[in-house]
Input
Amino acid sequence: MKTNHFSSPPARLVVALAIGSIAAACSSSTSSSLKPSPGDSGTDGPVRTATTGTVERGHYLVDHVLVCGACHTPNDPNGKPDSTKYLAGSRNYDFTDGAGTVVSVYAENLTSHNPEGLATWSDEQVRTALTKGIDDEKVSMYPIMPYPEYSVLTAEDQDSIIQYLRTVPANDNVVAADFPYSDQFPPAAQIDQSKVPHTQLAATDPDYAAAERGRYLAIVACLNCHTPQLSEDVPDLTKAFSGGKQYTLVKGASPNTSANITPDSTGIAGWSVDDIVAAFKTGTEKGTGRTLCNSHPATSDYYGQMADADARDIATFIHSLPPVVNGPFTCTP
Output
């Protein structure tokens, strides 16, 4: 069995309008302190429990909502996703853990390869990694992969993702172990969904339902990068979506800072829903046409192919958030 981890994010990198990031901070545990996941098949082969949802839905979520390829698919020499290594891992990022150590974290191989990918993982092991940050060897994963946010995914969407990952062709790409060590801390806490703001629209507003659908999508696609932290692994949900989170996308480069995407003067006050949709899907700023920070995955491979209805739901939610004073921020210091 491999000793590497299903860590990275997405999703993760990911996320709304002006910047992305790599999420939260430390995490880990040892196998002796964690109980086996339900459905862990031991030596009998991986158990399949993902029976709801569809492969098609999973494909859409993986590629255009969670944008897993932003971390798990390496780029070719031209800076484009390398289709020959789709979801085969190997991108790496600098991450400062809870002890202050800078760790090189490598995105895992998510293909159906045995042993480099997920072929021997049970469905519950994949689910646990996706939503709780614990891998098939009961070791925690660095929350650079935004599993705290993915914990809000519906059971059907989780099943869809698992079903789709089973169909990804095997790729023997070998991913290096995190250096100098794997995560040494307990998994990051799951997001308390009750503390994430709702739309300010009245329940009688014709756009209310769309905004609440957008809230679900924004939690998994935008919250991680665009929310400041109280401390390592602890997002400040009183300032949800207001930016200010720093991250390093390229080893050795200056850190980037995520933008405030609430409708405040320090964020995107004055932007319409259409403006937000356009920026989200094209990666360009309203008015100036300036390219958003390079961590925002607005290409045809990622957010550029998000369903128009979903992009509009996210934009409707963001447009109707409570304004939060924070910033303004620029990509680099």
Remarks:
- The radius of gyration is 19 Å.
- Confidence is low (pLDDT under 50) at residues 1-44.
- The chain has two domains: 31-167, 193-319.
- Helices lie at 55-64, 69-72, 123-132, 147-150, 155-167, 208-221, 273-282, 308-319.
